[in-house]
Amino acid sequence: MKKQLITVLALAGIAAGATLAFAAEGSHGGGILKSKHDMNMYVGSHGGKLDKDQRVCAYCHTPHHSVGIGATAMVDIDKDGAADLDGLGNETFYEVYYPLWSRALNPTATIDGYVSQTFNPTGKFYDPLAGPSRLCMTCHDGTIAADSYYGETNGSANAGDDQLVMWSMGNFGIGKGDSLSNDHPVGFVYKDMADDDTKYEIKDQSSTFIGTQKTIDSALTDVAGVGKVMTCASCHDVHNGNAVQNKPLAAGESGRGYFLLAAQKDSAICLSCHDK
Q1: Is the distance from CB of 130 to CB of 221 less than 8 angstroms?
Q2: 133: left (phi over 0), alpha (psi -120 to 50) or beta
């Protein structure tokens, strides 16, 4: 009996160890705890302070006294100057998304977005900070310390450092210098791009992410008065939920965890929207 008990405990220990190793390895749909967005796994080893109560959600959310109630943002869709309200109907106001947010956030901030020969939304709604993307930048702009949040405003976990190395992710100061001009565009109405011109080769938003039943439409953010907008959350599930598809490909492969809603193998995440 004693021998069986020891065997059971040993197996339990191996299973627990495997679970922890899996969780620490990447973000593969196992929930936010011990994922790359669990700041308790990060700030202590990067010059910051752990949350006093070892909370996970507190780094981004607070149940009381959240910031930014009722704030609005303005987008100048004809690009004639963000402060130029010309009375021609070319400016759009929309409500800023604040889900009980605990981090400093500027509702009037602007950021440069990607524009190229194949993507130029001038004359249409285009704000890279629309929806949850503005929230992402409160960490990913590379200037605000990860451990600066409600009640703990003097964080020091690599504040100002855009070379934040976290489980071998490398650079995640994505919006450094108030610019997303060299990143995949977000903040546009998906239908505008899908319907506007066949040169974009964009699938209809009723299509599903490859290998899943999740529709593109369900991953877009409905911005009141604007439409269904593509945001950072259209590709990434920040809470590492069951929709995350970037599982390890095989034994010994990491399937690098970026909270993606389709796999990286065979570029499924790209080909879910792009009809190539």
Answers
A1: yes
A2: alpha
